[in-house]
Amino acid sequence: MAYDNAEQLEEFRLETRKWLEANCPPSMRTPMVDDEVVWGGRNATFKNPDSKVWLDRMAEKGWTAPEWPKEYGGGGLTRAEARVLEQELRRIKARAPLFSFKGKTRWCQGYSEPGAGSDLAGLQTRCEDKGDHYLINGQKVWTSYADKADWIFCLVRTDTSTKHEGISFILFDMKSPGVEARPIQLISGESPFCETFFTDVKVPKDQLVGRLNGGWEIAKRLLQFERSSISSSGFGGTGSLSPEEYAKQLIGTDESGRLLDGDLRGRLADHRMYAKAFALTVQRQTEQAKAGQAVGHTASILKYGAAKMNQDRHELLIEALGTEGLGWAGEGFDKGALRVTRQWLRSKGNSIEGGTSEINLNVIAKRVLGLKEHQ
Amino acid sequence: MSFVLTEDQEMLRETAMAFARDELSVNHLRALRDAGANGKDAKTRQKLAELGFFGVIIPDEPGAETFGLTGLGQILEAQGRTLAATPLLQTALIAASAFQLGGSPAQQAEWLPKIAAGEVTFALALDESAHFSPYSVSTEAERNGQGYTINGMKKYVPDAHHADTLIVVARTFGDSGDRHGLSLFLVPANAKGVTISELKTVDSHGAAHVTFDDVVVSEGALIGPADQGADILDPVLDRAAIGMAAEMLGSAQAAFDMTLEYLNNRKQFGQLIGSFQALQHRAAKMFVELEMTRSCVAAALSAADEGKADLAELASLAKAKAGELVHLVSNECVQMHGGIGMTDAAEPGFYMKRARVQEALYGSASWHRDRYARLAGF
Ligand SMILES: Cc1cc2nc3c(=O)[nH]c(=O)nc-3n(C[C@H](O)[C@H](O)[C@H](O)COP(=O)(O)OP(=O)(O)OC[C@H]3O[C@@H](n4cnc5c(N)ncnc54)[C@H](O)[C@@H]3O)c2cc1C
């Protein structure tokens, strides 16, 4: 269904609003709690039964993948409609129903290896053609939720004589014999990632995606999606008071409402300005793109900015919290503050995951600015 | 002012560095953490006592030479290198200084030898809010005939969860925020009415909130004259800030060394990552900051030993610079280790966690910049 005028779009908005009003359970309009995130998959669990109701209704509408064609289980919405849906969901503060599509299969991503991080194309996991199947041997790292996922999409080496052109993209079941996942504990205490080992894993040949040795092209596109999804949604991890609020509460203000710590006040203002500039840039780029103007390499720019912004915010939170922000667990600390401390530690990964900030700046310098490689 | 250690101080430094390296590694802290010790480490306390580290600023007999705060600074720097949790800052530095600067001859004779022998440990109970603000004290000590009755609460007191005795800053006159009217009291940690609530902290060193509920102490518990505690507290806090700055210098140096080693070993794109200029310049800048901070810490330690008039200024300089340094280096250490830096199995995270505690205690960089400006008259 295509809308060619604002009126029809408005009609879609009203319908959507009505549907959400009727179908989004009240408890799904409260801030997400960590252990109620819905991951779907074979072993899906729903701590809050409303989560299942919400997911089933949204999936049935195809709205867990709003812009996908209906034939593939999506919602068949246009860009503009999808944006309206997003706005309406935000208006009622609805939780994301799910972290993956439809919720039937939970996927993990097998890219990074111990020796191949920034230089992802240096990956070594071997995939050999054994006639009627492929045989995979090697190790991945940072495989998110590999211990809980059903399937993996994985980059493997199918040709050792070249670098980028020797990589293929393959899918397989994590239950296959020879797959082992060991959780990695992060500095923030959680272990959502794994080291994943493959020993003689047999994979049917029709599970190779695209062309043999053509995996790098697919991976590059997916990385771009990853970066732009990070940059448009930011790194999350909010839900706490703002650093300004904590500072006002814990440090105090003068009669005119100015924060007593003038030095911190200046840096808080600086951060707010950066955040505003970032939001304006996202908006400018969106509008320009809509108008058909070229914007180029926004993903790297915004990914860099989003990481810096989230890290600055959390450093300011920790500073504003003072010793209240230095707890790890247990009694004696405000629960919200304890969460901030963990999020502060987690935010340090923002300039590493999905391509480090250094790599993003390299991309800007080389591809956007056209600066020459160091000889 | 001397930037060159005496031969004795140099030997002390080497002993302390070797001890920290061999017996108090980051893995030691990790093991304590995983065992739930929360910074309590009786064995280490015993070894520190055997090494004589508790008595570094305490003369064997009145008037005798000591290693001075400069000597103690070397030990704190060494323990900073490996993030060791020890009672030295609270006991060998803060408590010993409080007695030396404000204790009666009888108190000095009673406590200093015990401190030197490692027989007693202390914790300074000062902060009442989440931010360092030394005169913002509401905890009250009311006269009660022979002594005082203390009521109030203190937040995030380092070492209070294992110290034998607390040095409590309480108000005997005036209102929170007044410099005048503060008094320092010795309160046994197990005194009636004292409640110590242990905290699990991000750096695995632990700390405690302490409440005082009609805690009765004698006149003899007062260190220095009543109401004029700030005259002792101020120079003690300057020394604490300097000692902490020495510890932070050690932490920053170790995190820097670790980073440098990683730059010299990790390969990506077929090259050592240390060959990328983007990282080289950042490493070089950190080195410049390290060198500058080292000068400030040395100058502040030596000013304390020589009783220089610019002690307060140098204390703020050292604490602010060390705060900025350890903040920068601990962040860069994680970042330049890439994904590995985000794992608990690696050491960078330990440095970052401890750094924020070091930064907050005895005045943040922001607090000391403000004070530096005030001292400079603007
Ligand atoms: C929280 C988190 C989540 C992650 N999730 C995933 C995931 O889901 N799937 C996945 O496949 N991977 C994931 N990763 C891995 C991530 O993509 C890599 O960690 C990242 O690409 C960096 O690689 P590395 O860790 O090997 O660091 P290295 O590449 O070894 O980098 C070390 C340091 O060198 C710098 N450096 C490297 N090359 C250059 C250069 N040319 N110029 C300047 N500096 C350079 C880096 O920026 C970094 O500071 C995750 C990582 C983290 C921390």
Please tell me about this protein's structure.
The complex is a heterodimer of chains A (375) and B (378). Chain A has helices spanning 6-23, 49-61, 79-91, 215-233, 243-251, 262-290, 298-321, 335-347, 357-368; strands at 107-110, 126-129, 133-144, 151-157, 167-173, 179-184, 193-204, 208-209, 327-329. In chain A, the strands form 2 sheets. Chain A has a 4-stranded mixed beta sheet. In chain A, strands 2-3-7-6 form a 4-stranded antiparallel beta sheet, with no helix packed on it. Chain A is globular, with a radius of gyration of 23 Å. With 375 residues, chain A is α+β, with helices and mostly antiparallel strands. The mean pLDDT of chain A is 89. Chain B has 3 domains: 7-121, Acyl-CoA dehydrogenase/oxidase, N-terminal domain (Butyryl-Coa Dehydrogenase, subunit A, domain 1, Orthogonal Bundle); 124-223, Beta Barrel (Butyryl-CoA Dehydrogenase, subunit A, domain 2), CATH 2.40.110.10; 230-375, Up-down Bundle (Butyryl-CoA Dehydrogenase, subunit A, domain 3), CATH 1.20.140. In chain B, strands 1-4-5-8 form a 4-stranded mixed beta sheet, with helices on one face. Chain B is globular, with a radius of gyration of 21 Å. The mean pLDDT of chain B is 97. Chains A and B meet through helix 6, helix 7, strand 9 and helix 9 of A and strand 6, strand 7, strand 9, helix 8 and helix 9 of B. Strand 9 (327-329) of chain A pairs antiparallel with strand 6 (194-201) of chain B, so a sheet runs across the interface. Flavin-adenine dinucleotide sits between chains A (109, 111-112, 117-118, 142, 144, 193, 349, 352-353, 355-356, 358-359, 362) and B (266, 268-269, 273, 276, 278-279, 335-336, 338-339, 342).
